[in-house]
Amino acid sequence: MSADLQNASEGFDLLFINDLNGAQKRFAESQSPFHLTGAGVCAFLQAALGMETELLAEAARCLGAADTGAKAQGQAAKSQAATSRFGAGVEWEVLRADAAVMTGLTQAIGETYMGYLNCLYSLNNAHSRFSKLYKSVFPSGMDSQFATPATSKAPSRNASTLDLSSSSPTSSQAKSTRSGLFGRWGLSAQSAPAPAQAIDPQMEEFIIAGTAFGYGLFNLVFALLPARVKSVVGFFGFTGDLQTALHALAVAAARDDIHAIFARLTLMNFNGAVLTLSGWQTDEAHLTKQYTAMVDACLTKYPSGTLWIGHKAKLLRLSGKFEEAAAMLQVGLQHDPQRSFVQADVMLMYDLAWALLALRKYNEAAEAFVKLKDLNKWSPSTYNFLAAGCYLSAGNRDTAKALLDAIPSLLESKKGQRELPMEKFIGKKLALYKTKHERQGNASDRDYIDEIAINPAHELGLFLNVHSHMTSEMSKALIQEWLALTPRSSIVSPVEASAEKTPLHKESANDLILPEELALRSLLLGVVHGVASYWTEARAYLEEAAQVAKEADYKWVCVVAHFELATLELRETSARLGAENRQRQPWMDAIAKTEKRIETALSFSTNTTEMTGRMESRINMLRHEMTAKKRTLE
């Protein structure tokens, strides 16, 4: 059995250096539950990264077979000698729990309500297993065995992610003689009390890391479920706890088992999402430092791994180093005949496209968005829309028009399938452009594409918060461009409007004639003024955007504007007081104002509001950060 575990672990090592074919061959060598789980994980990652949803059935099949096999092995193990101090067959329960969680994620990947319910059902089945495993492996709780931020006496951060400061073990704990991952970061990860005789050290690691990882991921999934699905969670009698989740994942990440790599990857994805989408963090510097340490550790082990290169480039982008990020991504995308994990390239190409957009390299950004259509099947119409916007900014009208003209047929080809929120949004935008063209009299020398005055890629970028980490110079360039649009805004900006016309400016009449366009311009100006730390002007533009959008019943702009006003309150307070300042009253006042803004944003978020799910996720992240800030003020 230990040989199967070792062999399957080597398969994951191949996967993490982009050799998907090699990993799949390794997992196909045996029908052991370990190998079947590996095959299921491969199919899941292909489906998740490449949006190849037809692979979800294969993932579910492999994971189901792994569960069945592990169940049989567990029953047989009860009559055999234990391979760990935790009792006979516990390792098979860990594997069954792994299969259950992965099955749940497989069902949730489509982001449908029914998919979430199926995910809940799978996780409900896993709940009893996790509870039993947790009590068996951590009978006194993780806090008594592992030095983690949840138990540190003086944490530098009680926030949405873990503190890597070390804490001394109690006298009853033996110091770990193994320098684990967190040891290199400054966290002294404590091993569980050593048994009198460790029958199989590798199996010990598998059980400890697997239990911590599964328990952490289980809680994380529930903590981050959409609000509308959380109401169903109560029916099952449990809720996810974010702090518990991150604490458990930290314990798993400190181990040597393959679960440690998946725990680090989970934490990287979570940290990256918070830094990118929440709009404000309790301790951005700490979060970035921690994220960097995890990425560097994985790159040390797997230097050519696409997953880690993508995260390293994201860190560069988050720190405003867009040129360096783009260069790293381009190197990472260079052809390697040994690399077969092409689905992971989607992440690199996607981030490259947005980095090039921020650098105003519009032709290159457009080419990157177009290439994404060849790399995955997620939404060709969305990639067309983004690429068209970039080509328009580059002055390539004909190519942009061809891409936009193809969108209706692309949307029609998906009729009968679930409509993606982004595609629904794009359909409404095309209708708006055509409405504007009609109001202009349908001039024979013009087409609806000639009515587009603001790059659609920048508009969609609002939902992904792509502007927030731009440098001051980059944001000022966008301010100059959008201030030059006519009619001019009545709000006075410290930045002068550009005298140079872009390809999106019109030769005659006003660039913007619809209230929806005026609201969008004010929203974008509010966002980038905030990035440049022009707090007063940012607030004025965002207030204007919210008011104009409300009058035009343009609800998505209302939601985003009030959310941006909420984050602006916190960012301005951080700038005024300093991130480490713990003056209770000023912060509590800012948090109270932020809560009101969030409630206002949610009041405009309905079933018919575009991109409501994505914005509610961002609001959820921001609220977690606000809760973390409150803890530091106690």
UniProtKB/TrEMBL annotation:
<dbReference type="GO" id="GO:0005634">
    <property type="term" value="C:nucleus"/>
</dbReference>
<dbReference type="InterPro" id="IPR019412">
    <property type="entry name" value="IML2/TPR_39"/>
</dbReference>
<dbReference type="Pfam" id="PF10300">
    <property type="entry name" value="Iml2-TPR_39"/>
</dbReference>
<dbReference type="GO" id="GO:0005829">
    <property type="term" value="C:cytosol"/>
</dbReference>
<dbReference type="InterPro" id="IPR011990">
    <property type="entry name" value="TPR-like_helical_dom_sf"/>
</dbReference>
<dbReference type="GO" id="GO:0005741">
    <property type="term" value="C:mitochondrial outer membrane"/>
</dbReference>
<feature type="region of interest" description="Disordered">
    <location>
        <begin position="148"/>
        <end position="178"/>
    </location>
</feature>
<protein>
    <recommendedName>
        <fullName>TPR-like protein</fullName>
    </recommendedName>
</protein>
<feature type="compositionally biased region" description="Low complexity">
    <location>
        <begin position="156"/>
        <end position="178"/>
    </location>
</feature>
